[in-house]
Amino acid sequence: MTDNTMARLCEIKVPDVGNVPSIDVVEVLISVGDVIALEQTVATLETDKATMELPSNAAGTVQQVFIKPGDKVSEGTLIATVMAVGGGEKAAEPVPVVAGTVAKVPAVESTPVASSARKAEVIIFEPATTTGAKAHASPSVRLFARELGVDISKVKMGSGRKGRILKDDVKNFVKKVMVEGVSATGAGIPSIPVVDFSVFGETQVQKLSKIKRLTGQNLTRAWLNLPMVTYHDEADITDMEAFRNLLNAEKSKDEVKITGLMFILKALVAAMQQFPSFNSSLSSEGENLILKKYFNIGIAVDTPNGLVVPVLRDVNTKSINQLAVELAEKSAKARLGKLLPADMQGGCMTVSSLGGIGGTAFTPIVNAPEVAILGVTRAKMQPVWNGKEFMPRLMLPLDLTYDHRVIDGAEGARFMAMVKQNLNDIRRLLL
Ligand code: CAO
């Protein structure tokens, strides 16, 4: 047997940390039976001003551990014994103190037993300005957080002494983010407080439908990702309405009636043809616009289970009558819960019409990755000044929400002016 294979019992002791009479044991990172490496951190110690990671001066199997969290120790206190196999000890060699946001002090000389170990990493808690600097955590916990991609400053309060952040706090933070998804992202959005409403009166819990839950996720995602602007205006649809009534009067009672929505679809697509950015999506890295050469329009349909958006394809190629029949079919299917995923895919822009119900204006949310949505509320007869006199005109309120990363305010206003013009004089749709 050579020296290299001989086992020796080594002691790990608290080194000289500079006249500090009492040091707190914050974490003990080894247990009896653990096989540890040379320089592996065995404990985290803390004074009022600093925290230290105590490295092992031997590689081998832990025989006894003499401390536990909460203990007070001082220079020379025995921390643990390690059965080291030959070559398991190493001469002292300075290691860099954890870089970045914390102040560095020179490491101190070790005791006789610790003299063969590297110097202790000593971190002083000083107010700092960079991200994560104010987090009260040891270097190993900071490293652990960095490995998981966690900004440690987001881990609000640690469960350790004086709010110190421990590994478990980082793990719990990650779990919370996974569970809460988008609402707990780096955007730092605080969650809504949980309230026991039954304290104030009788309540009943009703499960949300799957459609509502999915719609909610999509809307939240769009709301958080898109800088949205909603622009309001009114279109004069007096003449269009007269024509629509004429067409419907010619229809038999079995035929699908034409609503104003069909003209709105046509007017919208004609404007999209003139303003290609409205028929686009932003590429995922946000550097390119993907321009679409087809004109599929999603229609928000109100169903007992929630909002769904079937897509009418190639609206530019279809007649008003065809669109009326197709929307009647799709909305009936939607209300019966029979839409297939393919029925709801491939939309370029969405129309959300509340006109059959009422309203004067609202702010629809863009159905991302589309870049715009047109909201419609109830048309109303209004006195409109024509330069000589007030005339009764049927005015249709329109609400255009767009992704401001793609569409400028002036472009939005010009687009809306074109939609209005097309509705005001539907002969333009022939051009
Ligand atoms: N002004 C005045 N009257 C209007 C109108 C408007 N803007 N829009 C529709 N109407 C009238 C229609 O002409 C029809 O009148 P008649 O019964 O006399 O023919 C009546 O209101 C009902 O219309 P409708 O709503 O059934 O038909 P539509 O083609 O206008 O809309 C659909 C179809 C599927 C869009 C609609 O039924 C619907 O589900 N709307 C709700 C969409 C929604 O929930 N949006 C909110 C989403 S949140 O962003």
Summarize, please.
This protein has about 425 residues and is α+β, with helices and mostly antiparallel strands. The chain is built from seven helices and 21 strands. Strands 11, 14, 17, 18, 19, 20 and 21 form a seven-stranded mixed β-sheet that branches. It has a six-stranded antiparallel β-sheet with strand order 7-2-4-5-10-9, with no helix packed on it.
What is the name of the CATH topology of the largest domain? Chloramphenicol Acetyltransferase
Distance between the termini: 99 Å
Domain count, please report it: 3
- Derived structural class: alpha+beta
- CA radius of gyration is 35 Å
CATH uppermost class of the largest domain: Alpha Beta
> What number is the mean pLDDT?
84
Largest sheet at a glance? 7 strands, mixed
User: What's the CATH H-level superfamily name of the largest domain?
Assistant: Chloramphenicol acetyltransferase-like domain
